[in-house]
Amino acid sequence: MFAAVAETVPSETAASETAPAQAGPPALKYVVTYHSVPDFAPLAQLHFPAHHARVVEFHERGDLIMVGLLQEPMNGDSMAVFTSQAAAEEFVAGDPFVLNKVVATWTIRPWQEVLHQPG
After folding, report:
1. pLDDT (average), residues 8-16
2. In total, how many domains does the chain have?
3. What is the largest CA-CA distance in the chain?
4. pLDDT digits (tens, 9 = 90+) for 80-103
5. What angle do CA 71, 106, 77 make, to 5 degrees?
């Protein structure tokens, strides 16, 4: 398990030169994992344009942070990171890969980021 350790060190740096303190841990994100059917390639090719359009839509809305295929082995499994559980559920519910059985099983799990860098 990762833990943050805080240490108080006197500093001569002016308050205006210090970075603003983060107000707490970053918000949870939600990871979707897809496990594809064994012979996924022909189905994936057929339904990719509609799936890709959905990926772009959710990314442009700000709901989808990142998405990609898992490698080694290249078996069609993938993962995506969403900003909310509702967005992850909405994506899966209407994804052409799910609706057309390119995906055999899927999961949505909350994920706590630990290397968050405030923007």
Report:
1. 41
2. 1
3. 64
4. 999 999 999 999 999 999 999 999
5. 15
The strand pair at 64-69 and 103-111 is best described as unpaired
In a domain, 38, yes or no: yes
* Cα–Cα distance, 44 to 69 (Å, whole number): 12
Q: How far is CA 109 from CA 20, 22, 31, 84, 113, in A?
A: 30, 25, 5, 10, 13
pLDDT digits (tens, 9 = 90+) for 36-47: 999 999 999 999
* Amino acid of residue 49: P
The answer to whether residue 34 sits within a structural domain is: yes
How many angstroms separate the first and last alpha carbons of the chain?
25
